[in-house]
Amino acid sequence: MPNTLVIVAHPALQQSRANRTLMQAARGAGSHVEVVDLYALYPDYLIDVAAEQARLAAAQLVVWQHPIQWYATPALMKLWIDEVLAFGWAYGPGGTALRGKDLWLAASTGGPQESYRPDSYNRYFFDAFLPPYEQTATLCGMRFLPPLMLHGAQRASAAEIDAHAAVYAQRLASYPAWPELADLPECVECVVPASARPAPQSEAA
Ligand SMILES: Cc1cc2nc3c(=O)[nH]c(=O)nc-3n(C[C@H](O)[C@H](O)[C@H](O)COP(=O)(O)O)c2cc1C
């Protein structure tokens, strides 16, 4: 079984219905699945970058599981991306640590699916909010797998959340034997030249 790393980012997990259930499902999905509760681990926002990079290096499938907040990741997840996916490690010259891995987004929204339409209050189909995730993966040489979304999570019944969590656990247990992976294109190569960053101080002087 390929190692799977599930990073859960929910700023108030004790009040969560969807993500708490999903996290429990992930924990039961197999011994190859490591689940990290980011807000519990780093309540002070002081991320151990080396430890996070070691976890990532050991995984073939990386899962970002979180509620959508302001059309994006919760704040600590964003900080984790800023700090852990470092230039020269995750992308740029020598930045090949994540190449060939898969990234899967498992997220929930408060807005129901029908609110993510041009004629409703979220104005855009939800796919319009995915390019920052997809390009983050691609820049790091990772395939961005089709996301698993739970829309309308606040009003979903317990039975609907349980059914969604069962699909999630089944997916985590069966990766990489997912039928849709055969049709996914290879990751596009994004070469960031060394000149894209300022020279170190000693060279610049
Ligand atoms: C600060 C904040 C921002 C939010 N932004 C969005 C949003 O942009 N779009 C949306 O559909 N729901 C938004 N929500 C609702 C959450 O996505 C929703 O409560 C969550 O997915 C429910 O999952 P849970 O039961 O695990 O908490 C937001 C919630 C909070 C607290």
Structure description:
- This protein has helices at residues 18-27, 38-41, 49-57, 75-84, 131-139, 158-174, 201-204; strands spanning 4-8, 33-37, 61-67, 102-108, 143-150.
- It is an alpha/beta fold and 205 residues long.
- It has a single domain (4-204), classed as 3-Layer(aba) Sandwich (Rossmann fold).
- Strands 2-1-3-4-5 form a 5-stranded parallel β-sheet, with helices on both faces.
- Strand 1 (4-8), helix 1 and strand 2 form a beta-alpha-beta unit.
- Helix 1 (18-27) packs parallel to helix 6 (158-174).
- It is globular, with a radius of gyration of 18 Å.
- Flavin mononucleotide binds at residues 10, 16-19, 67-71, 108-111, 153-154.
From the helix content, strand content and strand pairing, which structural class follows? alpha/beta
Overall mean pLDDT stands at 96
- Describe the strand arrangement of the main beta sheet, using strand numbers: 2-1-3-4-5
The number of distinct β-strands equals 5
> Helical element count?
7
Given as residue ranges, the uncertain stretches (5+ residues, pLDDT < 50) are none
The total tally of domains equals: 1
Task: Name the descriptors.
Rossmann fold; five-stranded parallel β-sheet; 205 residues; alpha/beta; 7 helices; globular
